[in-house]
Amino acid sequence: MNGSFFQPSAFLMMGIPGLEALHHWISIPFCALYLIALLGNCMILFIIKKTQSLHEPMYYFLAMLAVTDLGLVLCTLPTTLGIFWFNMRRIGFDACLTQMYFIHILSFIESSVLLAMAIDRFIAISHPLRHSSILTKTTVIKIGLAIIVRGMVSLLPIPFLLKRLTYCRKTELSHSFCFHPDIMNLACADIKVNVFYGMIILLSTVGMDFIFIVLSYILIIKTVISLATKEECLKALNTCVSHICAVLVFFIPMIGLSMTHRFGKNLPPLVNTLVAYTYLIIPPALNPIIYSIKSSHIREALLRALWRKRESNR
Length: 314
What we know:
- There is one protein chain.
- By secondary structure, this protein is mostly helical.
- The protein has helices at residues 23-50, 57-86, 93-126, 131-134, 137-155, 157-163, 180-184, 192-225, 230-238, 241-263, 269-294, 296-313; strands spanning 10-12, 90-92.
- Helices cover 75% and strands 2% of the residues.
- It has a two-stranded antiparallel sheet with strand order 1-2.
- The longest helix is centred in the middle third of the chain and has 34 residues, at 93-126.
- The N and C termini lie far apart (72 Å).
- The model has no long low-confidence stretch (mean pLDDT 90).
């Protein structure tokens, strides 16, 4: 480029490499997952809103998780299905940065919400009599606002760091959505600042969230061990099963995606693509199922709602 500044007007997104001819068929399971995620999370929000007994900190945080999952689904659905159905690969530069910003914000928010849920479980098990007085409705709202502000502020420099770079003529992304390392690697300029800032933010937010979640469960296990009977231990741990599943479903693909982007240069493109889809689509689809199956209060409220609907239709 002879030192001249070049910024592409648009990027070209990628579907599933090597399987372009099968995109229409591949779209079927993607549509099913998106539908499950949309309906499942809307159902969780509806049940929590309509059931007075679920107006507790645990379910307020679950509602935050459902809203975050809906946001992630709505961020990636248009571009993913646009490629599979209509081969619409082009996305404007600014539109790509906007999508990337919201995907990363929502991912950071989900991580923070999972931490808040872990702390909620610790307080509920360690101080059951003071739980409602410690985590009041006002406190939960403040925690929610702090989580949003933290995500927005920490990631605000990322789009500007990308806009300052000069890019090569290659404009093809690795995914059907915009991801910071993916855009950054298309630059012809020095990206050390982007890499350093990205790592610092990732470690100081999602990394710290994961560490504090693990510490919360260490404290929970210590508390549970001190309980008098085996039945009390099992009952206390059973309230954490759904949350543990949600944590694993979120963090394992996220760590996998970070590793493949930073150290998986020699991996087949298909592996990177599948890990990315697992990270962004599977958790929003599985979380409502996990909580509907494992949480007796959600399950009972859902059955009551279905029963009332059935009775009203008679």
